[in-house]
Amino acid sequence: MAAPDPALTMPRAPRAEGRFIETKLRRPQVAGELVALARLDRALTAALARRVVCLSAPAGFGKTTSLLKLARALDAEGCATCWVSLDAQDNETARFLQYVIEAVQRALPGVGQYMLADVSEANVDALKAILRSVCEDLAARAAPLALFLDDYHLIDNPAVHAVLAWLLKVSPDCLRVLIASRYRLPAGMDGLRRQQVLADIGSAELSLTLDETACFLSAAQLPALSADQVRTLFERTEGWAAGLQLVAMALQAEGRGAGFIDEFSGTDRDVSAYLLEAVLAQVPPAVMRFLSLTALFDRFSPALCSDALGQHDAGATIAWIRAHNLFLIALDDGGQWFRYHHLLSDYLRGATAAGAPDQACLAYRAASAWFAREGLQDEAIACAFQSGDLHLAADLIERCVEDVTQRRGDHDQLIRWYQRLPEDTLFERIGLRLSYVRSAMWSGRLREAQSALLAIESDLALRYAVSVYEGKDAIDAAILGDLQICWYMFHVFSNRVERVRESKRAWGAQWERSGNPIDIARVKLAAACFAFIEHDYREALALSASAQTFYERCDYYSGVVGCRRMRWVLARERGQAREAEQGLAALYEENCRELGTYSIIAANTGIQLADAAYECGHVDLARTVLANAFDMSSKYGLVTDFIAAFLTASRVLRCDRQGEAANACLADGLALARERSLPRLTVALQAERVRVYLQEGRIDEALKVGRGAGIDLAQPGEGAGLARPSELVLIELRLRLATGRLQGLGLSIDDLLAQTRKQQRVRLTVRLLALKSVLLQQTGRMDDACAVLGSALALGAAGGLSRSIVDEGPEVRAVLEQLRRRGDRPAAPGGSSAEHDYLNSLFSACDDAPASTPPFCGGLGTAVKMTQREVEILKLLQCGLDNRHLAVQLAISEGTVKWYLRNIYQKLLVSSRTAAIARARELRLI
């Protein structure tokens, strides 16, 4: 990865320690020495030969203890280690990644290009980008590091499993990952097992043998036990370490001995329940009540116990529990947060749910209120759901919608909460339902958004009928306005042109009179997006400027940024790429400073900056910005950002000679576009794929993509102009050029040029001029080709357009060579020096392009380089074979024959077979 542009790299902010529960990131401490168990210790040592180790066994089999043994062994090797003790809250993918990144960067300070302090929002793709840079840095340093993940069985979110699989795939060999879980790793890890990268250690290895049981009990400093007693305990516990530990705790109590062992061996009850009952029977009733209440929560504090649960002596009770080793784990050094060993908390939760369900509900409800007052909204909502009070959960969700979606950008979290609420709870909460619609649209889930909007519309109609019948007030106008705005935005995002126009006519005036600045701003910006899609750039610029005024009045930063960004996107499409790049660079730097490098807003600005930079030929800048912004914008961006993200990323990868990665990027974009019903994105990516296939000589595949996009070359679009999407038009033009269907093509391009000039679509105008120059060159009119490309260069030089010209392929390079020989230079601002620099930048961009068809090698009188296949075709032309017979003779398609003939004509500067044969003879090629 290239080094970041110094102008765009933000300084590292200080680490925010308060974001983490400190002891989750620390290796557990044990008193005394770990018990030496020779057989198990040998198995653990052998497992270290693999890069990934997973200890999987039921609760209490000593998985954490075994991890500690592995950690000490790695310490002895000089390997750095980091630890994450997972809990149920880590099922959130972003939280999981945050803890992993923090643990790694604490173990090796300075590793990776960015720190978590650079991130203002808990976004998965941004965090993955940080972790990817950490892995690259580890590989460069070759620094050995071991990451320990304890209690991984608490993770049941498939998205987190996928992230772990991704980490194991992209991480270097110097990073070991050691995992403790009650379950085997998911099926997605089977590839690691087949590659012998993953070592599984299960309950068979972790179960203690008879001899190891004797060692374990002896280390507990119990009164001497006979061999029969040890055997009895071994057989009953089946080598279960936690069971033996509970036995030791019970035997240490006064008055217990052989009688307890005999009773224990004769019971048929569940071993863990029996042993816990034996231990908990020693606990005073007040402490038992405390245990039963606090075990309901993944974590608890003395303040929660006192204020919400009525346990005013919580401090003393916690001290008693710690003194009696009742599986209590401190989560920070200050004694503010605790949790129990999962074995104990699972047992107590089950007992409380079965014996006192009402008490559990009251505790959850009280805790929910306490968490809400403390600003811990996620835990407040989780407790509300646990209590069964779904109305309370919905109330809490409504209160934090803005924080979750606009500050944190976590639309997926809102969607998950919403989907847990039943219809009867949601029926009256139209505001929450519309918030869900906006999150669904922002996440590209247009089908879900449409279904929700239709349901809201139906429910409001029913409510209106009831209100009229009962003589009540009509529906709040603000709710109706919000619904209309959501419909309008939905039509814009899904490119439903006629519905947008209808909505604008029917509702536009009403919104303008509503007096709500946010509503007015949203509608104006949506209308500006629609005008942009319709290529009415003057209207789009005016509407976005007006929307910005309303957003500024409300101090709504994200809206202001959206309007400012649109201004520069419009400038780029109007041919002012150089100015757009400068404006977007300044805006991107501001977004990073205000919101963080990996915020959604900064990412979307970065994607547009990358597109402008690529257009200007600044591929290094585009690559740097994409490294930070692509994953986020390609997931959360609006339609224009989706298009720019995948197109620019694939083009930069192709410039880096990473053809397979570029093709994969296009394939991912197409899959996402189809999944989310985004037709504009689909067609734009299909157009790019056609362009790439043609330049690689894969004409049959290009024709197949064209047919998939609805292009029928047997019946080309006649007179349709730009009524179709411009990408479809470009697909057809390129395919007609490639297959020799040239009749009327010049007139079609001229009609299109007249429209684009009228619409001020300078970027597309330059592309069409480049294609027209290829057409003229292909028909042997090199002078006219030079004149037309000269017009394109004049427009390009004025605005800094580069890639729109050279990306049309090696044919354009041939005409540029002719222009340079003739001394023709585009009129560029700044005089002859600027003209010279512009031409040089174009040839530099041509050199950046990946090799495809051989470039033009000179005019008449110069050496012409032909490939072996092209010479073979020339010899067959001498024999009078037509295209069909040429295809049969060469075992290729007729389309590919036409592709070769086009290249031959281009190199020989001719436009017919006869002229090609004559010219080839003159140059002694045949």
UniProtKB/TrEMBL annotation:
Q: Which UniProt keywords apply?
A: DNA-binding, Transcription, Transcription regulation
What the entry lists under PROSITE patterns is as follows: HTH_LUXR_2 (PS50043)
Keyword flag DNA-binding: yes
Q: Does the keyword Cytoplasm apply?
A: no
Cite the HTH luxR-type domain residue spans from the record. Answer: 859-924
What domain of life does the native source organism fall in?
Bacteria
Q: What is the protein's given name?
A: HTH luxR-type domain-containing protein
